[in-house]
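Possible regression after last week's pipeline update?

I re-ran a chain I had predicted before the update to compare outputs. Posting the input and the new output here so someone can diff against the archived version. Not blocking, just want to make sure nothing changed silently.
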Amino acid sequence: MTVADELLKGALDLHAHGSPEFTKKMPGRVSNREWGRLAVEAGMRGFVVKSHIFPTVGACSVLQDLFPELVIVPSITLNPPAGGLSPLAVELAIEAGAGVVWMPTWSARQQAPTRSIFLERMQPYLTSMDPAFWPVQGLSVVDDHGKLAPEVERILQICAKARVVVASGHLPIGSSLMVCRRARELGVPFVLTHPLSASVGATIDDQLAVVAAGGFIEHVFIGCMPMHQRMNPRQIVEAIEAVGPNHCVMSTDAIEEWNPPEPEVMRMYIATLLSLGVGEDDVRQMTHENPARLLGLPESTDSGAAPNPLHAVQP
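New output (post-update):
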């Protein structure tokens, strides 16, 4: 049993992908049930199940029944197949148990070009579907006057009432900052999603601005993997040092079958940061304390079976 194995015990993964994800033609390394079994064996506290396409409330309901000792948190990502920037979709997902709402990811309108890359991402898997019916223009949380769109304001109000985490997805950093500031005004926990990824590209100054506005910074390990960005993990360490581990969370973002199962990705992540000089207490804060704080969970895990998340907890 290594130090990384010990630190994995009680860890919460706030960003990992279940099944189905984009399509059944893009399977993960293991089934949802196997993922849960591995998390239990590793002693993890739990995880948030994300999909770019589907709300994960149904899958998580089944998993929670199978693994009552885990905290298993459903989510919704506001891409077009899940309703886009729809307050109704958000309200229904939260009523069914969603604890995290991601802003648009692959469908987010980037500064240049304005075209969404979602269609390009999905095209290899849509051989039997007419791409003319898929959205071409990316989604924006900002209206033509440079203010938060009314539907986004309503979504944040719904999340505030339920005390649900809002994450930035793949929004441009300027839009993420607008969402962060309004979210924090309303008492909504906010997370800047994988700022070092190519889909976001936030600078250290951008990350410090999010922290100054009351948000957390999420760093994921998947960008360091061979089939992804092959990012040097020292970049993550430098970013953590710049904003402070008290403002950061470590997540996997594990997806696709060429990656190890999510609990193993988290163990690899922990071991890597330890080897690069990050202290055990800092790793614990980013994998245990900060994720629990964001989700509104008690710090202690000694109470037995996992509480059904999160909506009874006030900000």
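Follow-up from reviewer: compared with the archived run. The longest helix spans residues 280-295. Marking as no regression found.
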